[in-house]
Design brief:
Elements lengths: L1 E5 L6 H9 L3 E5 L2 H5 L3 E4 L4 H11 L1 H10 L4 E4 L1 H6 L2 E3 L13 E4 L10 E5 L8 E5 L4 E5 L4 E6 L2 E7 L2 E4 L10 H12 L1
Parallel strand pairs: 1-2, 1-3, 3-4, 4-12, 5-6
Antiparallel strand pairs: 6-9, 7-8, 10-11, 11-12
Bound molecules: glutamine.
The site of glutamine (GLN) has 11 residues, from α5.
Length: about 190
């Protein structure tokens, strides 16, 4: 199994390491060609405005939309969640969402860097809590009925799934816990 990690910008290295610990070949995706060799994609945290621009200029944006619509599994964390959403508030004016999961997000909705926090999350299907690390995290303001909410804080979704797209507003690669990556790989094997 070959799983791509978008490596145009941001916190991609620890996702690559998590995949390798789970025995999977990780591809750092920087071009349409690397993307073509990947069966699934992780979009890491980072700066969604920059990633948005680089996704478009590299041509990955259109290909990603097409492959996702054909069932390719995608995991988007933090900035990745923002990029995959259907509507971005407080983004850059020309920032275009991929519209691959029907959620509306507010960039930096939990506050700025100084408001970063950690929280023990109850995630659907997990038998013990998962440490959620939130760094300038997006706030999910709306989800459609197509979306399954897998975890929430104070009634706000922080992990969601729609078909083969999973998003988290936190950074699972910082938790020292590979369960979310393992669950994603299960989705990839079954797709
Ligand atoms: N606030 C960042 C953005 O808008 C996301 C932060 C993160 O990925 N940790 O892109």
């Amino acid at each position: 199994m070959k799983v791509g990690v978008l490596a145009l910008q941001g916190a991609f290295k620890l996702h690559v390491q998590a995949l390798e610990r789970l025995g999977v070949e990780a591809i750092e995706v920087r071009s349409l060609e690397n993307f073509g060799a990947s069966e699934a994609l992780i979009i890491p945290g980072g700066e969604s405005t920059t990633m948005s621009f680089l996704l478009e200029s590299s041509g990955i944006f259109d290909s990603l939309q097409e492959r996702s619509n054909n069932g390719m599994p995608i995991l988007g964390t933090c900035a990745g969640m923002i990029l995959l959403s259907s509507k971005i508030t407080d983004g850059r004016n020309d920032q275009k969402p991929l519209n691959l999961i029907d959620i509306e997000v507010r960039r930096n909705g939990y506050g700025r860097q100084i408001d970063s926090f950690e929280s023990d999350l109850l995630i659907q299907g997990f038998n013990s809590s998962f440490r959620g690390v939130f760094i300038r995290a997006p706030l999910v303001e709306n989800v459609s009925e197509k979306v399954e909410v897998l975890a929430e804080i104070n009634g706000r979704p922080v992990m969601c799934r729609q078909d083969s797209t999973i998003v988290t507003s936190f950074h699972p690669e910082l938790a020292d816990d590979d369960r979310i990556h393992a669950e994603f790989l299960e989705l990839v094997s079954n797709s």
